[in-house]
Amino acid sequence: MSLQPRTVSFVAGERNVFLHILTACNLSCAHCYINPAQHGTATLSRERLAAWIRLFADRRKKTNIIFLGGEPTMHPDLPYAIEVARDCGYTTTVDSNGYLFHDFLERVDPERLDYLSFSLDGPDPAINDPIRGPGVFAVCTENLRRAVARGFNTSIIYTVSSRNIEHLPRMVELLTELGVHRFFIQVIGLRGKSATSPTSPQQRLQVAPEHWLAVVPEVARQVAARGIDVIYPKVYLDPDEVFQCAGRVAENFFVFPNGRVYQCPLCEDYPLHSYEIRDDRLVPTGGINEARLFSLDIPEGCVMNKLLQPDTICYDDRGQPLHRISCCLLKQRITGQER
Ligand code: SF4
Ligand code: SF4
């Protein structure tokens, strides 16, 4: 096998359900994307949780469900939700900040959860904790070690920004030492606090294209060489690559506890959702919504990126974009090699 990255194209019929089961969290990360004004402050009841999991279930198609918050382990019924999801045929993932409340590791059978992901934004406390909070690195890595020892399939999610991109190469050793199975590299988004905080303007958090391309693919190759699967966003399309909007060719549902259902994560700070859940039924929204925007073809690639983050696009003398921005849901994967 080679260590060449493979673009994970949208597969016809692929379905992902990103279910935010509450918006509360014990942390206050600098780049938190939760926006209570748009997503509410509700926690789904046990009954509603089960109803909404069943609402999106479709046994004819392979469907992934990702339990999110806020911090999803703060919900006492998360182990129950995992069981409901398994019974519906989903591939199940929990994305946690690492605090693992309510004895999560003891109450969940590692055989019943496909992936347990931990968010970490630096290879040591000096880098991670100014972004995620004092003491977070120690708690997160300690619980990750416990999860690996209990037999969970673990991932780390690292959100790259100008505050931590220089330290990404040092994650190679840490991932190896912790025994992590998968590594997700994400790019800082322009949502929630990173979009609005006067102390962290997007210009200071986002990384330039040449910086991203100089660092991320090489680190990904090094991590894969240690036997760890790596997934990272494509971000910039090569000149001969075809642009595709996931909103047109895949099924993604970003579900919030106030009932909003988006198809594009870039739209989550706006009332542009395609659907709403009313009385536990999925209802299309009318008027201007994200689905109306997906069909616009522009030379810059992703239309929402052009509308919301125009500063990320560079142009040549003729006014043509230097890079086309790929769909933020388009990923590259390098399968880990045997150590
Ligand atoms: S752990 Fe997640 S939900 Fe909680 S503050 Fe950090 S980014 Fe936001
Ligand atoms: S990120 Fe852009 S390309 Fe992807 S679904 Fe949203 S609008 Fe479409």
UniProtKB/TrEMBL annotation:
Which cofactor does the UniProt annotation name? [4Fe-4S] cluster
Known Gene3D superfamilies for this protein? Answer: Aldolase class I
Q: Which residues cross the membrane?
A: none
The record's PROSITE patterns line, in alphabetical order, gives:
RADICAL_SAM (PS51918)
Q: Which residues form the Radical SAM core domain?
A: 11-226
Key word S-adenosyl-L-methionine present in the record? yes
| Pfam families, alphabetized | Radical_SAM (PF04055)
| Annotated keywords | Iron, Iron-sulfur, Metal-binding, S-adenosyl-L-methionine
Q: Key word Transferase present in the record?
A: no
Q: Which InterPro entries match?
A: Aldolase_TIM (IPR013785), Radical_SAM_PqqE_MftC-like (IPR050377), rSAM (IPR007197), rSAM_sf (IPR058240)
Q: Which PANTHER family match?
A: PQQA PEPTIDE CYCLASE (PTHR11228:SF7), RADICAL SAM DOMAIN PROTEIN (PTHR11228)
Name of this chain's protein: Radical SAM core domain-containing protein
Q: Which organism is it from?
A: Desulfofustis limnaeus
